[in-house]
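May I ask for a protein sequence together with how it folds?
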Amino acid sequence: MTTSWARQRTAVFGAIVVLVTAGVTAHALSAIAENDRRTSTATAATTTTLAQVEKGPRIVFRHTGRDADYGHVGVVALADPDGPRALTDLSCDRVYAQARSVSCLMTERGVVSSYRATDLATSTPGEAWREVDGADLPGLPSRTRLSPDGRLVSSTVFVNGDSYMVSGFSTRTAIRRIGGTSYGDLEKFTLVVDGRRVTPVDRNIWGITFTDDGRTFYATVATGGRTYLARGDLTERSLTTVADHVECPSLSPDGTRIAFKEADEGGTRWTPAVLDLATGRRTVLAGEARSIDDQIEWLDDDTVLYGLAREGEPVSDVWALDTSTTATPRVLVPEASSPAVLR
């Protein structure tokens, strides 16, 4: 493993530790909120019902207001993203959703914490979400995605103990068919890098995004100190690199582009960018000057979303950024993270 790669992975792990610490802090703040009945600016007198919001296009997210609902899944109308939000009883570290499916990665705290992926579904808009499937996770929740039809679900976690990692941790990513087959750890898939089949021991895979054909997906593959965008095939159980220097891909609604985060030379700072799959042309969204360590979501074919923590606070907001090079980021959903757009 190269020195720069070690710095990059160590920086990521440090960020995760900060997030976990922030979560503990937020739990303490929630207890205070319960005692004195304080509410966040985003939710005071602005809540609504799930049935009302689910009547139309919407955004599902993780609520990050400093109140008793911290970490709970919220839903807001796509047409009024900073307006009334419906807050559910479901608490997640990371969440994603499609029209009738929800994926929730959670930490089950105890003397020894454990981690779980829970799959939920609803048959009609506004109906209470019910658990339909799930799986234990081997480490700290990081990313989750659902296929467009809501039948495939991916989970990425951070784990400890891989001997080849100087920093002592790596990722594990798995894909399951909800209520059916598990395709297991993607590190077991055949890997083709730059046209050559390889079997490196240092491979790491994370950040899944699905196409709509039920078998194809994209992922980040890291090996030898480099990161690649790889196209995956569930039927062939294979991963084939198609571009380099790509992390946490997200396929656009029209299926033609990949939004991703591009690392600097030190691997400790990320800028949002877009890759055209047909031409290979990259557009770095330089209007965002802050480091974006998130898996980007598409608001529409011309706008991306990402979560960003407020400086010095255990609160984050969902920001929107047009894909033009001169665009300026704006807050779309305050006190929120982990957005999923349901059109």
